[in-house]
Design a protein that fits this description.
single chain; alpha+beta; Double Stranded RNA Binding Domain; three-stranded antiparallel beta sheet; 3 strands; flat
């Protein structure tokens, strides 16, 4: 099993997603939920392509942290 950080951003009237560890692997959607589902499919497709081309699946090296800042 592989785990990858996925960044989801609100972009105007829809959402976009990408994974820093999988360059070029992106997805969009009208809702956050649809964007998550589309990104899940995009990652599976991306990894399948890497396997078919006998390329190494990259290690997950990215992480995220939410920080609370008292202003």
């Amino acid at each position: 099993m592989h785990r990858f950080l996925v960044i989801i951003e609100k972009s105007g009237s829809n959402f976009s997603a990408y994974s820093p560890d999988l360059p070029g692997c992106v997805a969009t959607g009208k809702t956050r939920e649809s964007t998550e589902a589309n990104m899940y499919e995009a990652i599976n497709f991306h990894l399948q392509g890497l396997r078919e081309d006998n390329l190494v699946i990259p290690e997950n090296t990215s992480f995220a942290e939410i920080m609370a800042i008292a202003c």
